[in-house]
User: Fold this.
Amino acid sequence: MSKNKNSFSCSNCEYKTLKWVGCCPDCKLWNTFEEIKISPIMKKDFQSVQMSSLENIHFEQKQRILSGIKEWDRVTGGGLMPGSFMIITGDPGIGKSTLLLKIANEICKNYKVFYFSSEESLEQIKLRAQRTDCLSSNLLFADQANLDEIIATCLAEKPNLIIIDSIQNCYTQDGDFVPGSIGQLKESAFRLMRLAKENHITVITTGHITKDGVIAGPKTLEHIVDAVFYLQGEDRWQTRILRAVKNRFGNIDELGFFQMHEEGLIEVPNINQQILEEVSCSPGSVLISYIEGSRPLLIELQALSISTKFSMPQRIITGIDPTQVILTAAILEKYLHVKLSAHDIFFKISGGFKIKSSSADLGIALALLSSYFQKPLPDKSLALGEISLTGQIKPINHFNIHVNEAFKFGIDKLLISKTQKVDQPSSKFITFNNVYELLNLFGDE
Assistant:
C-alpha cells in the first residue's frame, strides 16, 4: 500500500520542494512555504470532455459598457467588456475609490451597477458622493465584506457591473484565511473570476500595493484577472495617471489623465496642451513626441552639462534609460569632438514621465548639444529621429501620428532624418543626414 507523501509549496510564487525551507529560492521571500498533502492516485470514473472546433462555437459580439468618460474608456480599450474581471491599484489616498465612484455614477445611467465597500461605511460613501456630485439614485451601495453574500446577491439580482472596494478586506464564510492574506486573495479572486465568466457580470475591484509600488498579493492574482490598472500621481500638476499594464481587451501601456479637484477626479483630454504651456525655449530644452499606448505625448527633455570637478564625471539621469543618454553622448564626442566625457551630465524628462524609445535619440543629442554650446533650439520645434552608432540619423515608425499631433498644437518646425518618408514636403521639416549637420543649428562652434 502506497504511503501519502507531503511536499511544500511557496504561497507567493508556488515554487515546490520536498523539504521545508525558510527562504524561497525563486521569489526570495521568507516563511512562505506551506505543507501540501499528496494523496496516492486513485482510479475514478470521470466523464470525457466534449471537444468543439472553432467553427461550431457560437459567438456573439458583445457591446462594451461605455462610461462617457473618454480617458477611462481609452485605457480600458474602448469600454468595459461584459464578463471581464479587472483590478485597479495605487497608493493609499491616490483616488481609486473616487475614480470608481465617478465611473459607476456615469455607467448606472444605462446599466445596473452595484457598489460594495468593504473599507468604508455607507455614511462615508455618501459624504464622498455629495462632494463629487455622484448622487444618482440608480447606483446601489452596500458596506458588505462577506464575499459569499456578495456573490449570492449578484446571482439573484444579475447586475451588469459590480465594484468591490477592496479585495483585500473581503472574506469567505467557510475559509480559515485572514482578510488580506495570500490564501484569501487567491480564493476571493478565483470566486470573482468564476462569477464574471459564468454570469457575464463585469467585476472591478481595487487592490493595495506594497512598499515597492507593485500590486500586493501573489503573482497569481495578476494572472487571474483580465486587466490590471495602476493609478499614479504627479504632484506638480495634481494629475493622476491611469496606466494599463495588462489588458486582454485593449492596449497595454495605455494612459488616461485625470486632475484632482474639490469635486473629485476630472478627466484631462488635452494633456499635451498642458505640457506645452510649461515648455521654455532655453538651452538644454528639447521637445519630442512619444507614443504611449495609442496616444502621442509631447514631452520635454532637459539636459545640463558642466565641466566636471571630479576625476569621474557624474551622470545623473531620470525618466529614461541612462544607457541611451550615455551612448548618445559617446556618439557626439566620437564624431563631433565635443568633450562630453569631461562634463557632468544631468538629464531628466520633464513632468515625471518615463520613456523608452529609440525615436528619442535625436532629441537627446540636441538637448546635450544645446546645453554644451548654451544655445537654444528654434522656438516651437520638435525632434524625431534615431541615431546609429555610425552617426547616421535614421527615420522612425508611426511618423504621421507624431506629425499630426505636433501640428495640432502649433509646432512650427520638425527636426527629422533626411531619409524619413513624408506624405508631402513642407518648409516645417528641417532634415539631417548625420550628426555632423546638427552643428548647423548652433553656429560655427
